[in-house]
Write a structure and sequence with these properties.
The chain has 580 residues and is mainly α. The protein has helices at 22-61, 63-72, 78-108, 123-126, 129-140, 146-151, 170-194, 198-206, 211-222, 224-239, 243-249, 257-266, 272-297, 319-344, 361-368, 371-403, 408-423, 426-436, 448-474, 477-484, 489-500, 502-517, 521-526, 534-543, 547-572. Residues 1-25 are annotated as: Disordered. It is found in: Cell inner membrane; Cell membrane. The chain crosses the membrane at residues 37-55, 84-107, 119-139, 170-189, 227-250, 270-292, 322-345, 380-402, 414-436, 442-463, 505-526, 546-571. Keywords: Cell inner membrane, Cell membrane, Membrane, Transmembrane, Transmembrane helix, Transport.
Length: 580
């Protein structure tokens, strides 16, 4: 048998000597170790900020053999409280997802001359939640509500002495909450619409696919990240609803877990163990939603449809879409603001409007005391300080999540840490920070720092996610080109990435400022006499029944927020509000 003889393999070429000197290699090792240490320190700081207060609060529920759980779930109304909590969350999410997605579609179909209407669905966020709730109460209270009084003039309800709408019922609390959450869903979904490459939609249409099929078979799959994220955010916000149930549901017996937690902490002495036990279902549900989001999204880069080129999503202009946006804005923004304006200019709140009795005495009263001016100053200082801290933290976290392939474990840990505040209702963070910083080793209660820390913690998800979505949309081409040209990490970020993210940073700053200037839930729990903010002053006026003063403070809060948004738009560009 013939044998096959293989030629001898050529000897391997001698390896080229390293062109790097030992000192350069040593410096590179030092820099690599320093970077890793910096990432570890950053993750540790986030863990201290987010995890420690929650752990300390939850630990109280297990003290004395779990006495907190026994007291919490032994309450007579606990079954009804759980029912209202779940019903409020699910009902408001359904309304928000349908309405928010419809508004985003309508905004993508606006005629060119009506594109300014894109901003209108975002405006409900500018109105502080506590002010919006007050406005709805002034409109739809059974007897003195302006809108109810107008409806009773119609033949169908002329026989009624009050109603026909009861704003204090669970059904209307769900509807009002769904309206407010629609703006959040709209922000995420409209951002998803703008990031869909129009060439993909045009290709589907050219192939003969009808527009409705394009929407369900092309557009919706590409919107999957924003729909999942927006729906998750809406669900978490629905589970953690506090303002509506507190202001509208307390007197009518509509209680949820968050309001019951507040009442337990407001007792003397404060029942932290019971409050922590009541918050446990919300905490576990929130964490489950966050992880479910991540599991459903997977690798988000597979949804990127462009590499940095500018484009605009195309669609046939629709007058129906413009009408939908106008009607939504009328109901969600204009009517509550008008109700606040009339009550703030009246001596008494009543169902009729008499223009001859309007007065500005309520505003004189508000500014003649030190409480409101001091609260305005505190709100501005705390919000700006928290924004200045949260923005760079969010940038670092987003950069690590997108490009930290060298640190896979720390990358996942940071992603979880910055997402957790979305899964934890603000009332839990408020209670946790109150408990943590009224005891050693660090006592901050009564100082501005406890408010700023809880604000920064609550804003971490927004500061990170909005910058993260922009980094993903930009892709890697610009950064790779910068590195190939010899630019270092710092120069690439300051000269390339940050200018490209200017609009996103402005929108993020605007959103953070808006959310913080009218933050109410956590502020109510961690406040002290010297750290009152506008929301807590408004709540005190509401509790005292001083409704004209409530309306005046609510309008002032809205005005302060609007000025902050305008300033953010000047810094981040005219389209910053649309990128919120």
């Amino acid at each position: 048998m013939a044998t096959l003889t293989l030629p001898d393999s050529p000897a391997p070429a001698p390896s080229a000597p390293s062109t790097r000197s030992p000192s350069l290699m040593e410096n590179e090792k030092v820099r690599s170790a320093a970077r890793r240490l910096g990432v570890v320190a950053f993750a540790a700081f986030l863990a201290y900020l987010v995890i420690l207060p929650i752990v300390r609060l939850q630990a109280t529920a297990f003290e004395d053999g779990g006495a907190g759980f026994s007291r919490a779930f032994g309450l007579d109304r606990i079954g009804q409280i759980l029912k209202y909590t779940v019903g409020l969350a699910i009902g408001s999410v359904v309304i928000a997802m349908v309405l928010g997605t419809a508004l985003a579609w309508a905004a993508s179909r606006l005629p060119r001359r009506l594109e300014f209407l894109r901003i209108l669905p975002i405006l409900p966020i500018v109105i502080p939640a506590v002010a919006a709730i007050a406005g709805w109460a002034f409109l739809l209270s059974p007897r003195p509500g302006y809108l109810n009084a107008a409806l009773r003039n119609l033949p169908w309800w002329s026989h009624l002495e009050e109603g026909p709408v009861d704003v204090y019922s669970i059904q209307w609390i769900v509807i009002i909450t769904g309206f407010s959450l629609s703006s959040f869903v709209y922000m995420f979904v409209s951002s998803g619409f703008s990031n869909i490459n129009s060439e993909m939609l045009e290709a589907a249409q050219v192939s003969g696919m009808p527009e409705w099929k394009v929407f369900f078979r092309v557009t919706l799959p590409l919107l999957r990240p924003t729909l999942i994220y927006g729906g998750g955010v809406a669900l978490l916000l629905g589970l953690g609803q506090f303002t509506g149930p507190l202001l509208l549901g307390t007197n009518s017996g509509v209680g949820v877990l968050t309001t019951e937690m507040y009442f337990q902490i407001s007792d003397s002495p404060a029942q932290f163990a019971t409050a922590a036990a009541l918050g446990s279902p919300l905490l576990f549900a929130g964490i489950a939603v966050v992880f479910a989001q991540k599991a459903m999204l997977g690798n988000q880069k597979r949804f990127v449809t462009h590499g940095g080129k500018a484009f605009r999503s195309q669609g046939r202009p629709s007058r129906v879409g413009a009408a939908l946006i106008v009607i939504f804005s009328l109901l969600s923004t204009v009517l509550p603001i008008l109700a606040l304006a009339f009550v703030s200019l009246s001596r008494y709140w009543r169902g009729s409007i008499d223009l001859s009795t309007l007065t500005v005495d309520n505003f004189r009263t508000v500014f003649s005391t030190t409480a409101v001016p001091s609260a305005i100053t505190n709100s501005l200082v705390f919000s700006l300080g928290s924004m200045a801290i949260a923005l760079p933290l969010g940038f670092v976290a987003a950069s690590l999540i997108v490009r930290g392939v060298r640190y896979p474990a720390l990358r996942v840990l940071v992603d979880v840490l910055v997402s957790m505040p979305l899964g934890v209702p603000a009332v839990i963070f408020g209670a946790a920070f109150l408990l943590t910083y009224t005891e050693g080793p660090i006592v901050l209660y009564g100082t501005p720092w406890v408010v700023i820390l809880v604000y920064v913690t609550l804003m971490l998800p927004f500061a990170t996610r909005m910058q993260l979505s922009t980094m993903l949309a930009l892709g890697d081409s610009y950064l790779e080109a910068s590195r190939v040209s010899g630019a270092g990490f710092l120069r690439t970020n300051t000269r390339i990435l940050l200018p490209l993210m200017r609009g996103s940073l402005g929108g993020t700053a605007a959103l953070i400022f808006v959310l913080l200037t009218h933050e109410f839930t956590a502020s109510l729990l961690v406040r002290a006499s010297k750290t009152q903010v506008m929301g807590t002053v408004l709540f005190d006026a509401w509790s005292n029944g001083s409704y004209p003063l409530v309306a005046a403070v609510a309008l002032i809060m809205t005005g302060v927020t609007a000025v902050g948004v305008a300033a953010a738009m000047l810094v981040g560009g005219a389209d910053s509000l649309s990128k919120m």
